[in-house]
Amino acid sequence: MTGAHDTADLVVIGSGIVGLGAAYAAVRRGLRVIVVDRSDAPVGATIRNFGHLCIGAQSGEARRYADASRELWLRLARDAGFWLQESGTLVAARHSDEMAVLENAAEDGGIRMLDADELRRLAPLRAGGLVGGAHIETDLQTDPRAAAPAIVRHLAASGVDFRFRTAATGLSAGEVRTTRGAIAADAIVVAANHDIDQLLPEVAESHGVERCALDMMRAAVDLDRPLVAPLLTGWSLVRYGRFAEGPAAAVLRERLHSERPELAALDLNQMYTQLPDGTLILGDSHATATAPAPFQPEAAFTAFLAEAEELFEMPAPRVLERWQGVYAKAPGDFLVDTSTEGVLVLAATTGIGMTTGLGLAEENLTAAFGWAPAMEGTP
Fold first, then answer.
1. Residue 275 to residue 57: CA distance in whole angstroms
2. What is the pLDDT along the chain (379 residues), one digit of tens a residue?
3. Fewest C-beta atoms under 10 Å: which of 12, 239, 293, 343?
4. Domain that holds residue 341
């Protein structure tokens, strides 16, 4: 609907986790916020993920955003009423080089090393091949399909005006043009993830934005006890910043790629999360292109199931769903662009948007628009 309400302190383009974080930052400061999105709900990378908020696996700038996000996730879960647990993350190590990577990272704190028996007490894993593992203590877990709609409902109840099925067609300082008319705005945040190139192609090109397509699946499983936290493997250690650098990680990466080139070709992150209904999310593979093909290779799903059956003490899983996720990818982990006055373009340009997006929005909106800290007791 257009008319008397087509003026806002902040217009946010995109209702993924970064856009929701921007709206949350603004409404907590008492500002009038309009969010526009061409879909009728969050449908992108924000709901097509593991629900794993891998705070303790990050380093540098990503860790700063992740730490800020953690507090915001805890507050939103309480106020919006969705499931979130302070589970930490388990890591299963099946080789001495994986233990070496974990031991190096544990020196900085926040990671508790586990022997094989303790790891099996926490996770329903086969005994064969395990040499130990670790527990990353700060990590969180949620159900992304439930969390995103709950955040939308909470923000709407707090005064955010969501205009779904409304596409942004252009913008300039002080105005967003949409398929339902123009909106005047004191400030604008573009949080369109990989679709930045549809609205602001020059910005996308200058930052090297492409699309990363990933394959995932959800299965019914018969585990003798729940998986109490997200579970990572050696394939995960060579992806996340805190683990992936240094000589030990290089040794691990070389071994994995030489022993299992078919999994390396999938750019595998072998990890698992179990949802409250008992089903298990398995994945994931990665393929990068400006416009990835929509066709999902069965080899990826076959590998996911085979690797899960080798790792877990369970009968063959029964596949319930398969899907393709897509997220923005660029040489840097984050896109922060303020080249147009009054316009802030934000994206997590790697696969850690859920982990970092709330903090990314909070920190950069505060800096770009000169906002004071949010008032205590605000939504």
1. 21
2. 344 459 999 999 999 999 999 999 999 999 999 999 999 999 999 999 999 999 999 999 999 999 999 999 999 999 999 999 999 999 999 999 999 999 999 999 999 999 999 999 999 999 888 999 999 999 999 999 999 999 999 999 999 999 999 999 999 989 999 999 999 999 999 999 999 999 999 999 999 999 999 999 999 999 999 999 999 999 999 999 999 999 999 999 999 999 999 999 999 999 999 999 999 999 999 999 999 999 998 999 999 999 999 999 899 999 999 999 999 999 999 999 999 999 999 999 999 999 999 999 999 999 999 998 886 666 7
3. 293
4. 7-67+144-208+331-369
Q: Is the peptide bond before 6 cis (omega within 30 degrees of 0)?
A: no
Q: Identify whether residues 48 and 184 lie together within a single domain.
A: yes
Asked if residue 41 is part of any domain, the answer here is yes
Distance CA 304, CA 268 (A): 9
CA-wise closest residue to 142 among 226, 256, 50: 50
Q: What is the CATH number of the domain that holds 164?
A: 3.50.50.60
**Model confidence pTM above 0.90:** yes
Question: Is residue 238 within 8 Å of 57, Cβ to Cβ?
Answer: no
Question: Do residues 245 and 281 share a domain?
Answer: yes
